[in-house]
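pipeline stage [seq->struct] | target=beta-glucosidase | organism=Telmatobacter sp. DSM 110680 | residues=806
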Amino acid sequence: MKNRVSMGTMMKRVCATSAVTMAALLFSSAVAMPVLFGQMRNGSSRHAPSNAQLASPAIEKRVEVLLKQMTLEEKLGQLVQYSDSGYDGEAQTAAEAAAAPGKNPVAKDKVDAMQLVSTGRLGSMLNTVGQARTNALQHAAVEKSRLHIPLMFGADIIHGYKTVYPIPLGLAATFDPGLVTALGHISATEARTGGVDWFYSPMVDISRDPRWGRTQEGAGEDAYLGAAMARAYIRGYQGDDLSLPTSVAASVKHFAAYGAAEAGREYNTTDMSESRLQQDYLPPYKAAVEAGAATIMSAFNPLNGVPASANRYLLQDVLRDRWGFDGFVVSDYTAVMELRNHGIALDAATAARKAITAGVDVDMMSHYYDAELPALVKSGKVPMSVIDEAVRRVLRVKFALGLFEHPYAEGPEVTTAVAEHRPLVRKAAEEAIVLLKNDSSPSERPLLPLSESIKKIALIGPLADNSGEMTGSWGGDRRDPDVVTVKDALEARAKKNGATVVYAKGTEILGDSETGFAEAVDAAKQADVAVLALGESSEMSGEAGSRAHLDLPGNQEKLLEAVAATGRPVVLLVFSGRPLALTWAAQHVPALMETWFPGTEAGSAIVDLLYGDVAPSGKLPMSFPRAVGQEPLYYNHFPTGRPPIGLDLTKAPNFDSRFFSRYIDVPNAALFPFGYGLSYTQFAYQGVTVSRNAIPFDEANHNDARNLMTVTATVRNTGNREGTEVVQCYVRNLGASLEQPVRSLEGFERVTLKPGESKQVSFKLGFPELSFYDNTGRAVIEQTDYTVWVGGSSEAAEHAEFRIVP
Ligand code: BGC
């Protein structure tokens, strides 16, 4: 895959202390020089800074001193980014595209990064990883280039560097932001040793359509959960101080609304009302900016007709003017060039001009800024002030990262999964996995956890012994041998019980040969229970992994049917980067677990759950459909004029039940709804109460009204073992001037309870939770009625009412 990072190799640290000291001296002495502060930051007084470190006066002075010394070529150098695998493209014009559809950008010669760096014409590298290469390039930047400006090394470290944790969609299923912060921190510490100081993560795009392969890289369909996860990643990556050797700069992507690609097709169009944009898609980006994100990546997609990478409304009005973003914006890969394919630029110069004036500071891989901007600046078509501002933004982040003082990767390089990080990564996988079904059939007790008295287990399927597929499509710089497979872990655990595992692959992930079926069926017949590990390959989701079908790929469902036909109890483990339509399995298989792609500790975590050493606690961050035709399917949809309330949607409609908002061939509801997930114990909810029934409008109508009322409910563990429940709070505005969702998540809390134990859980509701966005992008609150539910999924039933009154 084009963006996979190269393997880092051990090398002696490049020693360039003299140059580093010189550079540090040069710039610290510069601190004392007088500067005209007020002119530096266009409009920065308008809004509190999003990141105090980037907005620090000390950094500001150093930026100004340096900027004054830079030639135009050196300035543009800071605004371009290349990769070592070197590719710069040439886009089609709209006319060429019409004449020769399907022609792709033409790959040109490899760039000579070392040469560009030495001459100050390259500011950052993409997916170059490992001390040897990063330090060599950095050495050229700080020793050889005229102004000694260090490089930034950005990489797609999305869910772990060497020690890999579950894909972000799986992490969202934990509903555990503290855990996500801790994981982000360990990946930052690992990656810094390999020279990486900038992660192209988190991807905070909300997606309501699992056909889109990149759903695996985000937090799913809900903006509230997405915002909580976005904050958690930023804290984990950036810590309190970007300049620490354990922090990296985050790049929040893909700004904006990339996850709403029509029909779930990658790189496709998005088009939506302002209200929907603000309410359902922007909150996670905003949360990330408020948490201090240092950089943002502009998206590939057009939004309402304007490509995100030339969208001044998004990049200036929303991001900088409203949210006060202080960092810099990098384009997505060749997104500047692609403005021509979008048909909004007839030539490269227009594309470069549109992108930089809209607010894209760094051009990733297009080679347009360095090629086109010199002439555009000379002709006055792009003012020098625009270039200067973009350069300032980049330099601020470099100073804040401490790169001028510590440009090199230092210390022993992390080249394999780190033993001390494995327990956290294992815990993450345990919390991420969602138990979807656990029937008693055929015995009295639920099939899971597996009985300790089981003597023979059949382990079947193409993902049962597959280290390469456990880490997902962005596996960082991981090594397959570090991964614990299901087979490794199950054999070890079974042995402790004196049990044996009979393994049969059965089939390939994608394929139609049934030659392995007989062996698999035979294994099941010999065993007390059959555990099937089925699903997608990691490359079937992720970038450019859109699917039009959401079933188990190849002939895996056929294999499942054949094994189930033996009558042996079946546990199905599903590996996937998205919700799949598991309709047959949900009807015929007693135990079903969604495992996503769990990472380095995949097998250990799965086996902990199978045997009940740990009780499942994951909850779905996306609705699982019954059929692909239901997509986009999301719990927080708008009401319709003809809701099919009270109808039996499993029956084909007759005249009386037909003219409703419904399908004639499948129920509307998800197979497994948002927020749903079972444990090995049960939880009951009681007594949802509100602290008051009426809130005066004048009191509510303030942006900063944070505690207008408290919702309280009691949750009780009614089963016979300890377990963790994600208590969720949903709100509905029943009568606004714009239609509002049938319910929206406005709070959650993980609660661990012993058998019989109960706990009161409270959620505070304020302006952010009770307001909505109108179509001018304004958050408003109105006099109206609300319902609030507390429970264990988006189908929670216990509720209370309140209203906002005159
Ligand atoms: C992806 C980004 C990624 C970038 C750099 C693009 O194709 O959309 O998410 O960060 O490549 O590898």
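stage status: PASS
auto-comment: The radius of gyration is 27 Å. The pocket of beta-D-glucopyranose is lined by residues 3, 126-127, 156, 200, 253, 332-333, 543 (CB under 6 Å).
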